[in-house]
């Protein structure tokens, strides 16, 4: 396998080439978890892997509780399948809490404070209530727990121990709710079983990938990542590329449509799933991708290559797309780029306008 083939296979295994999923829950279950702090970007990350999707479809899945958004891994918001959120939290969130110990000490967040906050939050949310972040902060402040500067960490902690998750939007505001009331009981896995399941899911949906990629994505120690991979090795094939061991399923369907242009949102799993992104992102473009205070911009991907970036501006009846091309596009690539913009605008239910660079 040539290094240039890695990205094409990742497009395939991340189900971007096929885009044949019918529901948001199928997409999220396939990928295991999808980073989701950019809420509207992640709606598109789900939609671009589906047939005939729109924003309302994805938001309805949240309301229907077939996907759930919370902080299961790396201290970052993700969409996860409801049946799997508890074992993923149990496996991955404790490392985040331990890693944040110094931050909690600086913010005077200790066990006694968390217990107080837990009681207050349960009292406020029980019975199916959903409250916005500001409303949650008001509850803490009214009970003598200053939320300024540390409220976000308190709520994040309560989500990581499985008390809270996010519910549906109220206007432009996201809401919190009690996870055990919002979701039915799910699968229970031991730590060892969870390592195996995470490895199987990761190397199935994101191949080709390395064990370091897997460790980065999950937040597991490299030792535990290796344990998970070792258990599933018989299900995968190893290939050495530039001195690295890459793992992928032993067979796959024929890969077609390599010239399709993808408009991918910032933080899409296509790039974010790997610690080494050089197969898709040229070294001289890495700093551009990591601009804007660490915010990862939306990308234009062709044949697995990051060929540009794009920004959107929403108007009443149209979405304005401003591309930044990193190289000269062929006539066919410009045509396919325009088709990708139309697909995205249809997802939003708006007309599309492309600003020529």
Could you walk me through the main structural features you see in this protein, from its secondary elements to its overall organization?
The chain has helices at residues 3-13, 24-31, 39-47, 55-63, 85-99, 101-106, 111-125, 133-142, 151-160, 179-182, 191-205, 211-218, 222-232, 269-272, 286-289, 331-348; strands at residues 34-35, 68-73, 76-80, 131-132, 164-166, 175-178, 237-241, 244-248, 261-264, 298-302, 305-314, 318-325, 351-354. The strands form four sheets. The protein has a five-stranded mixed beta sheet with strand order 9-10-11-12-13. It is globular, with a radius of gyration of 21 Å. The protein is an alpha+beta fold and 357 residues long. The mean pLDDT is 93.
Q: What share of residues is helical?
A: 40-55%
Q: Provide mean pLDDT, rounded.
A: 93
Number of strands: 13
Do you know the CATH topology of the largest domain?
Answer: Four Helix Bundle (Hemerythrin (Met), subunit A)
Structural class: alpha+beta
The major β-sheet equals: 5 strands, mixed
Helix and strand string, N-terminal first?
HHEHHEEHHHEHHEEHHHHEEEHHEEEHE
Briefly, what CATH class of the largest domain? Mainly Alpha
Contiguous helical run count: 16
